[in-house]
Amino acid sequence: MQKSAIILFNYEKYLKKIKMKCLLHTNNSNNP
Questions:
Q1: C-alpha 8, offset from chain centre
Q2: Can you tell me the distance from the alpha carbon of 6 to that of 20, in angstroms, rounded to the nearest whole number?
Q3: Is there a domain that residue 19 lies in?
Q4: Is residue 31 part of a domain?
Q5: Domain count, the chain
């Protein structure tokens, strides 16, 4: 139970990181 909760937490952090990376990437593309 505890282990899966930690994995879920890390997974959400990982997704947020990817989302931020994508946002930064699109912002850079829009502003040459």
A1: 13
A2: 21
A3: yes
A4: no
A5: 1
Share of the chain above pLDDT 90, in %: 53
Domain that holds residue 11: 1-25
The radius of gyration computed from the CA coordinates of the chain, to the nearest angstrom, equals 14
- Encoded tokens for 28: 């850079």
Q: Which two tokens stand for residue 14?
A: 């990982």
The CA-based angle 4-6-23, given to 5 degrees, is 115
Q: Is residue 3 included in any domain, yes or no?
A: yes
| Alpha-carbon gap, residue 14 to 30, rounded angstroms | 25
The two structure tokens encoding residue 13: 């952090």
Q: What is the mean pLDDT of residues 4-23?
A: 93
pTM (whole model) above 0.90: no
